[in-house]
Write a structure and sequence with these properties.
This protein has 425 residues and is mainly beta. The protein has six helices and 15 strands.
């Protein structure tokens, strides 16, 4: 099928929608999404060795070689529930429970295009929410420490990822993709920390409106058909060094640094029967290399490094590993059913909860269900439901004595409903 003017219009519209739709993604595996494309999300994010649609290149660029010519659109309705509690604190009025759900509903779009140029080469484009987080407190948890007004943090990360894949033979494919990242960030209600004592850049900590940052990285991947039943895959995504959030250089270490972490993983897909496939991925996410969130608060309270300085105190995030498992069952030629489970480490140590009242990305388990129905015209309608049960992390020596001591406890749970429409060209 030729890439007609109509196709170009669809592609341009999808890019513009992805760039300018005010979607927000909250934390799943930390603040990165569990998987890309609704079919992969129905399998708890599995997709490294199991390409299924035109967003396969977002999970592994080699997947572009296995899906043929197709277009996929999707949107997810995201419903997080999050909040915090402070206990045993000496500052009057601080110890209480705080609801972070002043905003409860978000829409997350996605788009994918794949085209086979020859028997050996394919290209694709994926536009999707890469990650992010949001919390919105009507009643400010930091008010007792001197902050004013409501409180909240909003982070959005969008990826535009063109990919190319090469199949030297029928058994193996190699892929590469650019990873263009666009980020938006906003913080408010943190005025208690916006002064020369706490910050190296007072006036650039709190309530500066929306700031943006951009960067580009690289994705590499391989998928091999080892036997008629077994596929293996591996992928690596480089760290993306983005521009700084200059408006918040007094909050984030490194004068507003918020790079996108390196990730890598391996995957397996095995056909137990012609209709039943088991698939699994193991993924590593290197949050500990992102200066803006990796430094612990003790860098300030113990070592004296102010917020925003090169070694400034912050959120104390660490690297995590995510294990994902999924089952796909072709119930009939028109209906495929899917389910999955994943578990990831918690990037936030219990002694770092105080600052992470503003970023409680602590869910660790995901249960998923989904299905795809082929219409009479050959198009595909997919749906998925994701449930991340509430996880509460109780602080352990989490509030420094300088802030009155005690503990900060944070929680998060998620519900996601998604639909997608795709077709082979």
């Amino acid at each position: 099928m030729k890439f007609s003017i109509r196709n170009r219009g669809i592609l341009a519209a999808a890019i513009l929608a992805g760039l300018f739709t005010p979607a927000v993604v909250h934390a799943t595996n930390g603040y990165l999404v569990n998987g890309y494309g609704l079919k992969a999300q129905s399998l708890a994010g599995v997709g490294i060795a199991f390409p299924q649609d035109a967003l396969a290149g977002a999970n592994n660029p080699a997947g572009t070689a296995w899906v043929g010519d197709r277009i996929d659109f999707g949107v997810s309705w995201f419903m997080p529930r999050r909040g915090a509690a402070i206990t045993g604190n000496a500052v009057p009025g601080a110890s209480d429970s705080y609801d972070g759900n002043n905003k409860k509903h978000f829409l997350i779009p996605e788009f994918g295009y794949a085209k086979q140029l020859s028997n050996a080469t394919s290209v694709g484009l994926a536009v999707y929410g890469y990650g992010g987080l949001n919390i919105d407190y009507a009643r400010n948890p930091f008010a007792a420490f001197g902050s004013q007004g409501s409180a909240g943090v909003n982070l959005l990360q969008l990826s535009i990822s063109p990919s190319a894949a090469w199949k030297p033979n029928e058994q193996h494919a190699f892929g590469a993709a650019a990873n263009f990242i666009y980020q938006r960030f906003k913080a408010r209600g943190l005025s208690a920390f916006d002064n020369p004592f706490f910050s190296a850049y007072p006036g650039s900590v709190n309530d500066r409106g929306v700031d943006t940052a951009t960067g580009v990285g690289l994705r590499l991947g391989w998928i091999g058909q080892m036997t008629p039943e077994l596929m293996l895959g591996a992928t690596w995504v480089s760290k993306v060094s983005t521009t700084e959030f200059d408006k918040y250089k007094g909050l984030l270490a490194g004068a507003g640094n918020f790079d996108v972490p390196q990730t890598y993983g391996i995957g397996l897909a095995y056909k137990i029967t012609p209709a039943l496939t088991f698939a699994t991925d193991i993924q590593e996410i290197k949050y500990g290399s992102v200066r803006g969130i990796a430094h612990p608060l003790s860098n300030f309270t113990v070592l004296g490094n102010q917020l925003g300085s090169p070694n400034g105190g912050g959120f104390g995030w660490k690297d995590i590993t995510a294990a994902k498992f999924g089952i796909s069952y072709a119930y009939s030629k028109d209906l495929t059913l899917r389910g999955g489970y994943s578990h990831n480490g918690n990037p936030i140590p219990a002694d770092q909860n105080f600052f992470n009242i503003a970023a409680p990305a602590v869910v660790q388990d995901h249960l998923t269900l989904g299905a795809t129905w082929k219409t009479g015209s050959g198009a595909e309608l997919s749906a998925t439901y994701i449930r991340a049960p509430r996880n509460t992390v109780n602080g352990k020596n989490s509030i420094p004595a300088a802030f009155g001591g005690g503990e900060a406890n944070v929680y998060l749970e998620e519900h996601i409903l998604g639909i997608a429409y795709g077709w082979k060209m």
